[in-house]
Amino acid sequence: MAILPEVKSHYGKLKFYIDNQWVESASSEVQETTNPATGRPIAEYPTATRDEARAAVESAQRGFKAWNEIALRERAKTLFDMRQAFEEDYDVLCRVLTQDHGRTMGESRGSVRRVIENIESACAACYAMPKLNEHIDQLATGIDEYLIYEPLGIFLIVTPGNIPMHAWSSFVPYALAAGCSVVVSPSRQDPVAAEYITRTIEKLNLPPGLINLVHGGRQINDFILRQPEVQGVGFIGSTAAGQALFKTCGELGKSSSLNGNGKNCVVIMPDADLDIAAQYLLRACFGMTGQRCLGSDNVLVHEKVFDQMKEKFVAAAKAMKIGYGLDESMELGPHASRNGMEKTLAWIDKCLSEGGKLALDGRETVPAECKDGYFVGATIFEDVTTEMEVTTEESFGPLACLMRFNDLDKVIEWHNKANYDQGHSACIMTADNKAARKFIREMETGNIGVNVAVPQPYSFFPLASKKQSFLGNAKSRYASMRLFLDEKTVTSRWV
User: What is the mean pLDDT of residues 143-152?
Assistant: First the structure.
């Protein structure tokens, strides 16, 4: 298979996008970002000053006012044009995402396709939104009443390091469909991806200030959120960061959609097709190097098929090709950051200290040519028990903990108790309708999968996470329309 060229070997010092202009930052705080497959720097990015963040907010306020003077049909056409722009830049965006984040090209193609699907969904929302408005004629004698949905205004959008493009599309197109403007503050792990998304939408001749980009961090994000013109925040990232934003939103009375961590599981029943399950587990546990919100590292296997499942899973994991994702034959890329790799290595050590036994040690399977990148190979533990702390802590690496069980009721009880504060995803592999239905009804988890590897909802469904895995008043994707809109009633008397 082909080894694709990098879009650039180095992208220079990144700029902010404010008022439809690329702005050189005056900040003295400048950091490097690296290609995680090689460890080599590929760009420098500044951290915005408060004055620069304030300029982005003021720009967004002007963009919001201008956008709402444009006819609905023209705003909808702009979203359709956005979809076309992403199709045209599809290959470049995929290669940038692989170079900046580390995922394989297959994973990048899937992620950018999810971006386009979200834009399509926002196109539908743009036309569906006016139909939400209600009108009752002659509610009382001579009195008519209306319910109107109106855009709230400016929103801060904070994207994570693991899904920088997909997360952008989970909020920004919907904000535009609702009539809002945005200030985007991307993760420091992959700032080049954020710039290239912005370069794609730059082609659309949007009203100045409708979409703004600054490189911030927690302090700048907090500053932006506290600006009086900013109405709320859309966020995907860690639960700790989400809780901090949630506290600020509560203090200030602002809207939020905050998506955090989870500890997910896959349950293999004795009647599951084990060959198919082994392939599904590769995606569930090792897809995107384990840095996936709905991926899993707890794998509970019925004792009747445990040994067979382990053998098939280990063999499939051993066969995965590890390396730089621009080589299209690669199946497992690096972590997005050195810090992520180090956390995975520490997690492996902790599992070993708690009594876990390695069935496959990914520290020993990384090719020599990958030594400078942030790689850990697929790692599988056995002899893991539900008493171990690692079964309740998200690893966010290419790891799987195999656990035996003989009673689905006990699995459900344990999972719900162990994840009392988390509720991202849970999957079951089975041919038994009764077992599947029980799993769906009793698992206290927002995204359930039956005979699928990763229960990723389509764009016009919400990411339905529960408990502390989600905080706020509206879920992401199509459901985020509720984040960006407010209600107004009009009562009129003419007689």
Answer: 93
How confident is the model at residue 272, as a pLDDT?
Answer: 97
Q: Which helix (H) or strand (E) holds 235?
A: strand 230-236
- Residue among 57, 61, 90, 67 nearest 205 (CA): 67
Beta-carbon count within 10 A of 68 CB = 16
195-215 average pLDDT score: 96
260: burial class by Cβ within 10 Å (0-12, 13-18, 19+)?
buried
**What residue type is 109 in one-letter code?**
R
Query: What pLDDT score does 479 carry?
Result: 87
CA distances from 410 to 269, 308, 387 (A): 13, 22, 13
| Exposed/middle/buried for residue 468 (C-beta within 10 Å: 0-12, 13-18, 19+) | buried
What tokens does 105 get? 């090209």
Overall pTM surpassing 0.90 (yes/no): yes
Token pair for 142: 């001579």
CA–CA separation, 383 vs 357, rounded Å? 6
Q: Quickly count: other Cβ atoms within 10 Å of residue 359's Cβ.
A: 17
Domains in the chain, ordered, with CATH? 16-260+469-491 (3.40.605.10), 265-450 (3.40.309.10)
Residue 223, H or E segment: helix 218-225
Structure confidence by residue, pLDDT tens digits, 278-295: 999 999 999 999 998 889
Q: Could you tell me how far CA 341 lies from the centroid of its own chain?
A: 19
Does residue 293 carry a catalytic annotation?
Answer: yes
Q: How crowded is the C-beta side of 98, counted as CA atoms within 13 Å?
A: 29
Q: Is the pLDDT of residue 465 over 80?
A: yes
Catalytic residue, chosen from 249, 293, 401, 427, is: 293
Output the six-digit token pair for 201: 């939408």
Beta-carbon count within 10 A of 344 CB: 25
Positive or negative torsion for Cα 378, 381, 385, 388: negative
What contacts 294, CB < 8 A, 6 or more positions away? 262, 264, 424, 425, 447, 454, 455, 456
Write out the DSSP string of 368-400.
Answer: GGGTTS-----EEEES--TTSGGGTS---SSEE
Q: At residue 299, does pLDDT exceed 80? A: yes
* Total count of residues recorded for the chain: 495
> Taking a C-beta distance cutoff of 8 angstroms, is the pair 436, 450 a contact?
yes
Task: Sort strands 143-151 and 485-493 into parallel, antiparallel or unpaired.
Answer: antiparallel
Structure tokens at 461: 């469904």
The tens digit of pLDDT for each residue in 471-486 reads: 999 888 888 899 999 9
| Separation between Cα atoms, residue 315 and residue 37, nearest integer Å | 24
